[in-house]
């Protein structure tokens, strides 16, 4: 019996050792995956009782702890002597609050690894950015994609022909120029066509933050470069385009910071209404863009709603104490929205004509929470009603699995699209594809032909 008990004790000991080893491995993985800023914060908190303030020596030690993918390669930083304005602690707090509503949230790995990456030059998809599939960064990337298309298709004399061929012969140099033009367009519009600010990261920290501010070793190293001429903005971005398009650059976050400072935080607070106080919110564990940020990207104003103008009444037609802020002007790029779940619960916001009918036939599409772009090379599509009888739209969803731009044929004179799909049972996505339903929010009742492609979004 004693031998048997000894054997049981040995087995228990071995199991415990195995579990301890697994737990140690898991803990090691967790430590490697944890955000460096969180590690630093805990280091600071544990040291608070023994020191009154963060020392310069401790800051230097913290900087050494940062490893890829969170640290920015030295080649993607600029010299502190380049001439920018270092970010102040007060402005850093305002920036954090306008983004997250507090100073403790920081961008996660999904955001930090996001940048503006083109597909292969001189290929059928050479105009296209490779975007995140989910999360907040993909919305920003897809708006920039729309402005890249604007540059490649319509940056030419009005009487010259725009063709898809011009999108398929884009080399690396032209990709850089198109990205710089797109970023400049968006920033300049946000600055009311008077000014724009570009944020870059320096090799040195600009300030020592307060204890109630969570470090990310990125924002604290920002320098702001402000310009009064659009050409100067574009030239500066071209000169530093690697800071937005290279891996490790945190390019999407850098552009978002530039957008906020181009609009200015005071203007953005005036753009908001009682429904919105900051730009990002948490969904499924990630920070995603509120409508105010999408509108800022598309129109230059961070208004929180998709309807035209201002609304003095709520959904029940009751008078509001303060008006709700919608879209005031048409922009170059439009916006379409469709969400199957929101439709099911009768909660889908109605997009106003300011966003549905942009100046150019390019639309960023929010389809079930994922982002894509629809566009046409035919500039007359929005100005000649006869063009809308039968026309083509091109669809791109930002994913590397899409090997060719999908051409859709839109027929607005046939009104039997529901009857065509009545024999399809089961999956509602097969019966009523989400892309088609999105298009019908603009061209009601239209029949959409995928020209041999299996519907997707």
TrEMBL record:
One of its GO terms (molecular function) is cysteine-type deubiquitinase activity. It comes from the Eukaryota. InterPro entries: MINDY-3/4_CD (IPR025257), MINY3/4 (IPR039785). GO terms for biological process: protein K48-linked deubiquitination. Residues 30-60 are annotated as: Disordered. Residues 30-43 have a biased composition (Basic and acidic residues). Pfam families: MINDY-3_4_CD. Residues 96-452 form the Deubiquitinating enzyme MINDY-3/4 conserved domain. Belongs to the MINDY deubiquitinase family. FAM188 subfamily. This is MINDY family member 4B.
């Amino acid at each position: 019996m004693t031998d048997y008990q000894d054997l049981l004790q040995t087995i228990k000991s071995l199991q415990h050792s195995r579990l301890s080893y697994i737990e140690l491995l898991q803990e090691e993985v967790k430590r490697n995956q944890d955000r460096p800023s969180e590690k630093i914060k805990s280091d600071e908190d544990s040291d608070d009782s023994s020191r009154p303030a963060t020392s310069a020596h401790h800051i230097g030690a913290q900087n050494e702890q940062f490893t890829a993918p969170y640290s920015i390669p030295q080649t993607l930083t600029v010299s502190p002597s380049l001439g920018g304005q270092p970010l102040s602690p007060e402005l850093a707090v305002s920036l954090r609050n306008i983004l997250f509503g507090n100073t403790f949230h920081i961008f996660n790995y999904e955001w930090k690894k996001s940048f503006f990456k083109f597909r292969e030059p001189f290929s059928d998809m050479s105009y296209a950015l490779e975007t995140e599939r989910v999360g907040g960064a993909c919305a920003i990337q897809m708006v920039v994609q729309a402005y890249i298309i604007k540059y490649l298709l319509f940056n030419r004399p009005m009487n010259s022909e725009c063709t898809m061929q011009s999108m398929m012969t884009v080399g690396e140099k032209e990709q850089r120029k198109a990205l710089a033009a797109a970023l400049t367009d968006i920033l300049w519009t946000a600055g009311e066509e008077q000014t724009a600010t570009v944020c870059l990261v320096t090799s040195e920290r600009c300030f020592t933050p307060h204890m109630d501010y969570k470090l990310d070793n990125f924002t604290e190293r920002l320098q702001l470069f402000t310009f009064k001429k659009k050409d100067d903005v574009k030239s500066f971005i071209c000169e530093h385009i690697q800071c937005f398009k290279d891996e490790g650059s945190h390019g999407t976050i850098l552009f978002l910071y530039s957008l906020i400072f181009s609009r200015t935080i005071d203007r953005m607070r005036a753009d908001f209404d009682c429904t919105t106080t900051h730009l990002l919110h948490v969904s499924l564990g990630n920070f995603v863009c509120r409508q105010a940020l999408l509108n800022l990207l598309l129109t230059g104003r961070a208004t929180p709603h998709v309807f035209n103008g201002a609304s003095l009444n709520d959904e029940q037609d009751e008078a509001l104490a303060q008006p709700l802020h919608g879209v005031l002007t048409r922009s170059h790029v439009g916006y379409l929205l469709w969400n199957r779940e929101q439709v099911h619960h009768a909660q889908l916001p109605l997009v106003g004509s300011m966003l549905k009918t942009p100046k150019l036939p390019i639309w960023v599409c929010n389809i079930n929470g994922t982002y894509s772009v629809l566009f046409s090379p035919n500039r007359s599509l929005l100005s000649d009603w006869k063009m809308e009888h039968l026309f083509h739209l091109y669809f791109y969803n930002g994913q590397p699995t899409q090997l060719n731009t999908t051409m859709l044929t839109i027929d607005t004179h046939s009104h039997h699209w529901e009857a065509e799909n009545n024999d399809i049972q089961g999956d509602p996505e097969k019966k009523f594809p989400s892309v088609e339903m999105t298009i019908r929010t603009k061209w009601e009742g239209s029949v959409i032909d995928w020209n041999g492609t299996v519907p997707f979004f």
